[in-house]
Design goal:
The complex is a heterodimer. By secondary structure, chain A is α+β, with helices and mostly antiparallel strands. Chain A has a single domain (17-29, 80-289, 331-406), classed as Cytochrome p450 (Orthogonal Bundle), CATH 1.10.630. In chain A, 45% of the residues lie in helices and 8% in strands. In chain A, strands 1-2-8-5-3 form a five-stranded mixed sheet, with helices on one face. Chain A has a three-stranded antiparallel sheet with strand order 4-10-9. The longest helix of chain A is centred in the middle third of the chain and has 25 residues, at 185-209. Chain B has a single domain, classed as Alpha-Beta Plaits (2-Layer Sandwich), CATH 3.30.70.20. Chain B has a two-stranded antiparallel ribbon. In chain B, strands 2-3 form a two-stranded antiparallel sheet. The longest helix of chain B is centred in the last third of the chain and has 10 residues, at 49-58. The chains are: A alpha+beta, B alpha+beta.
Amino acid sequence: MTVAPLTDLPLWPPTNLDRDPLVPLDAGERRRFAGPVTRVRLPTDATAWLVTRHADVKQMLRHPGFSADLTRPGFPLLRRIPPGAFGDRRGGFIRMDGAEHARLRRMLTAEFMIRNVRRIEPLIRQTVDRALDELHAAGPPADLVAHVALPVPSMVICHLLGVPYADHDFFQERSRTLIDRDAPPERVQRHVRELRDYLHRLVEARVATGERTDDLLSRLARDRVDTGELAVDELVGMAVLLLIAGHETTANMIGLSTLLLLRHPARYAALRDDPGHADGLVDELLRYLSIVRTGLPRLATEDVEIGGRLIRAGEGAIAVLSLANRDRAIFDRPDEFDPYRAAQQHVAFGFGVHQCIGQPLARAELRIALVELARRFPRLRSATTEGRLPTRDSSVVYGLDALLVTW
Amino acid sequence: MSGAVRVRVDRDRCCGAGNCVVTAPEVFDQDDEDGLVLLRRAEPPAGTVDRVRLAVELCPAGAISVVPRPAPQHSATP
């Protein structure tokens, strides 16, 4: 058997600065990667299998024969950073498997369940209201990302965790570094350490003083650390994860969703006139925009057949959520944005036991932010007149850096 | 096909994502203590069976299954 030279394989993820921000992959890229299972070259010069069909992505992410642990040799990393550079990884359960993962995740499942998220909806609404006041005071025109998309999820996750929002510049910058594929290794290393040190001080203060406020870090300190079930360093790692996830995902969805709705004025108006339909719209936005565009990487720990292709133990595979979310077998006319379709089967939150734990929170934030925006700014439109919008192309979570709007 | 079914949940597999509660709240709930799935009724009412089947599809951990419910026993006498 002849082996194709590495350079003949297509590079994943592709760099394409001409692509419209609302289009995860253009037609040419889709032809190149739509396999359904394609061998690709990664920026590290390793190879991996790209899995693109909805059914295959679900099978792969639910299969116990794929590991999420990026310290395993052969794991398909998307950047040239040795996993050791991430330093202390205790508590980072997004990169754990099996019982080790379940033990930590299960300490958080009740915190983010729908019933509890409903309870904090008034807080989300209040946060959105205040952000919209700020937007109004700053313009027109004003930057929707700086005034609404970034601060809303940041304030909410800070409140839930018990982290002072006043420090948001500090952790916003650091969480950005951590998910930026182009960030230099030494900067990543330093920012991880600084973020852990910062949260360590907050956790230690609660454990040492016995100070118990009504927030997630205090509850875990009392119910899990005091009882000896959880180490302080594990709680720190869990807090880092929640802080980053709480910042980087909903913020990018709010910005991109607004851009999309401003191009569909009738949909935007419908949000104001028929807010009861906002839940369906939110799922369609998640499907259509699929902001985790580089996909979810895993390492096969046993031979598994996916999409008719045998993926061998030790080989890397990447589940491309954005392509699965445009699979014709599941979604009729998948390239059309249609808020009235049944979009719930999308995999924008991932699939398998790692599926986003904060999805009820993300959905509520997105729904409230967009409905209130449409209600208070019915004449909102884009104020960007020329050139391309500033996008986050090297980030694991795609989004806009700014969106100038007027009203 | 939406014949009568019986639902099973596997709390050991459940990862508490809550999709089932959004999809068929009459049938599924989440435990206040651990956030894991609770079955409100093992035999879902006829009008919910399609949504229960959707919940099976949506469950990221594969923790929900449905099996056909056996027809009520009739008398064996001829």
